[in-house]
Amino acid sequence: MRSLPLPLTLTARLLPVAVLACAGWAWSTGPMSDSGDAEHKAAAPRSSAPHDPSRSVAAKTFAKPPAPCATVTGATVTALVPGAKAAGKELAATDESVRRGCSWSALKEYDYRWLDVSFEVKESDALAKEAFVSGGDAEGTAQDLGDQARLTTDLTTKDKQQTREAVVTARVGNALVTVTYNGSDFESKGAPSAGTVTKGALRAAGDAVTALQAAAKDASRPS
Predict the structure, then answer these.
(1) The pairing of beta strand 140-141 with beta strand 111-121
(2) How far apart are the C-alpha atoms of 52 and 88, rounded to whole Å?
(3) What would the pLDDT profile of 212-222 be if each residue is shown by its tens digit?
(4) Which of 4, 55, 100, 158 has the fewest CB atoms inside 10 Å of its own CB, making it the most exposed?
(5) Using CA atoms, how far apart are residues 175 and 209, in angstroms rounded to an integer?
């Protein structure tokens, strides 16, 4: 049986990953930024025709983000983040009618895993599409995942400790869904394979998009 390292050593190894995980939740960058939220509106000429709200106000597919911690299934959390509580931890947001997110993290023996999912609702599909496009280049696309989706992966090394991360960003109508999944092995100082983090991120993103679409259908049903 392997002996566990001293708590001080483990803390030192965890520190760079914790910093990276927190940095992964940067609302000020990528598709979660506030850029593009302000839409220039020209004054419409007056008309004597009867007022028709359906013509003057564009319908929004999603009025607000869903409860984020309920969008990833317990089975997915168990598979991707062994030892984490299925309930997750909701991340603080300045305006929950626009952005909400949830994270799961756990250290099992020497393996550390972090997963987070976030949602942002824009005022229109056009603004969401603009934010998606400005979010950066993709290494690959994810089929059957919303209207648009991209995947990026990254391997970083700090203090000889590797961390591998996969990020999936999907657009569904006027909503943006971002899933981040990363991990490290503190015994070998290596990281999970690219295939492991990629499949995990895509699985969680599939859960999140499905839950988002289901929440919109429930909201549209007459009470």
Answers:
(1) unpaired
(2) 44
(3) 999 877 655 55
(4) 55
(5) 10
